[in-house]
Amino acid sequence: MALKLDDKKALVAEVNEVAKRGLSAVVAEYRGLTAGKFDILRTKARENGVYLHVVKNTLARRAVEGTEFECLKPVLTGPLVFGISLEDPGAVGRVIKDFAKENDKLVVKAIAVGGTLYGAKDIDRLASLPTKEQALAMLAGTLLAPVTKLAATLAEPAAKAARAVKAVADSKQA
């Protein structure tokens, strides 16, 4: 069913608004993917805070204007699904990569992060980005490491003295 002009304008405005808030985007070709499998992909995307939408290429080109995903314009050809991460930059990469493992009909065409266009082979790099919780845990571990090392270093002379006293006591008993 063809969209009316008002519907097209609303869709372009919606995608543009999401793209302005987005952290990363993946464009994938879905040719040959059944509607049932596409529904599964949409469900996984929704669960992971990913905006997923099939948009006509001409409308998608207009929708990404003025956003950091404008770099995707040259690759917008063929039947494409547009995925945008809203909460976690790696979420769209993980969703698309995991789904593409089981469904070879979904083929990544391009990735955009921070206004830079990346090729399909970089989906692994995007998918391996840590979640916010993982990043905070790594930061906490990095911040705690020097404190832990300092505590161990400060405690070592007392522990060494205690071991020396015990060794002397053990040698006198023997």
- Number of E-state strands: 5
Helix and strand pattern = HEHEHEHEEHH
Catalogue the unreliable spans: none
Dominant shape: elongated
Percent of residues in helices comes to: 55-70%
In which order are the strands of the major sheet placed?
Answer: 2-3-1-4-5
Describe the structure.
This protein has 174 residues and is an alpha+beta fold. Helices cover 55% and strands 16% of the residues. It has helices spanning 5-21, 35-47, 57-63, 91-102, 123-127, 132-173, and strands at 24-29, 50-54, 80-85, 107-113, 116-119. It has a 5-stranded antiparallel beta sheet with strand order 2-3-1-4-5, with helices on both faces. α1 (5-21) crosses α3. It is elongated. The model has no long low-confidence stretch (mean pLDDT 84).
Tell me the layout of helices and strands.
Elements: H1 5-21, E1 24-29, H2 35-47, E2 50-54, H3 57-63, E3 80-85, H4 91-102, E4 107-113, E5 116-119, H5 123-127, H6 132-173
Antiparallel strand pairs: 1-3, 1-4, 2-3, 4-5
Helix pairs in contact: 1-3
List keywords for this structure.
alpha+beta; 5-stranded antiparallel beta sheet; 5 strands
Q: TL;DR of this structure?
A:
The model has no long low-confidence stretch (mean pLDDT 84). The chain is built from six helices and five strands, in the order H-E-H-E-H-E-H-E-E-H-H. By secondary structure, the chain is of the alpha+beta class.
